[in-house]
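Hi V.,

Quick status before I head out on leave. The structure for the redesign project is tokenized and pasted below; the design run finished overnight.
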């Protein structure tokens, strides 16, 4: 996806060299970027700046990233929060996600990985910013609810459309059945996890993915779409 001018990103970290590195990289991608060195400044700046995405460090003096996330997500604000953590700690991840964080990245991380996660969040939460998104052999048109694969419009049910869109947008990332159910079927879905397998099988048939090279199964982990 080509980055677009007008997309606003707020960086929050108490380490100046990280802020400078990320600010330069994201501005080079044509994003509009502002930064804050602490939690209170971030909350005040977010109110004025109205960012689409917030890159938020967890471990900060004073107001930590968890409290900032809670305040940013208060009142149902549609801002995408990607949390940065220096610890690959499950408890940190769970706490952040519970407070409304949309994704997390463990330090140290590559800029390319962060950029991919930013773009995934934008496609998921702000599809109206893009009339059509091209990704490898796919073209996604969220306004028409159509997915074109190798110049062929796929005949998809509404659920198949949402599932394939979620897989393609997050290409290269392993998605568990639980995460797929939450994002595609909703948190209140009371059915069995096996429904995911049924829909994956149907998508593979429509994509002629007999060898499972497009939608890969990673045993015990979930599914991953690999794009050329």
């Amino acid at each position: 996806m080509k980055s677009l001018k007008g997309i606003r990103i707020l960086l929050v970290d108490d380490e100046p060299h990280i802020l400078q590195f990320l600010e330069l990289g994201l501005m080079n991608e044509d994003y509009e970027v502002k930064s804050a060195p602490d939690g209170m400044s971030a909350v005040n700046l977010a109110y004025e700046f109205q960012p689409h995405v917030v890159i938020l460090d967890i471990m900060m003096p004073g107001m930590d990233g968890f409290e900032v996330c809670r305040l940013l997500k208060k009142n149902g604000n549609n801002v995408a929060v990607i949390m940065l953590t220096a610890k690959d700690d499950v408890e940190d991840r769970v706490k952040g996600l519970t407070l409304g964080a949309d994704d997390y990245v463990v330090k140290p991380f590559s800029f390319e990985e962060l950029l991919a996660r930013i773009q995934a969040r934008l496609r998921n939460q702000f599809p109206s910013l893009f009339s059509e998104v091209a990704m490898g052999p796919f073209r996604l048109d969220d306004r028409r609810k159509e997915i074109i694969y190798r110049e062929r419009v796929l005949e998809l049910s509404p659920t198949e459309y949402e599932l394939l869109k979620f897989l393609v947008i997050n290409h290269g990332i392993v998605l568990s059945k639980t995460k797929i159910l939450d994002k595609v079927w909703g948190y209140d879905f009371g059915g069995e996890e096996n429904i995911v397998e049924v829909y994956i099988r149907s998508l593979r048939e429509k994509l002629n993915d007999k060898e499972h090279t497009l939608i890969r199964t990673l045993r015990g982990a979930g599914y991953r779409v690999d794009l050329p």
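Above is the designed sequence. The chain has a mean pLDDT of 87.

G. will cover questions while I'm gone.

Best,
W.
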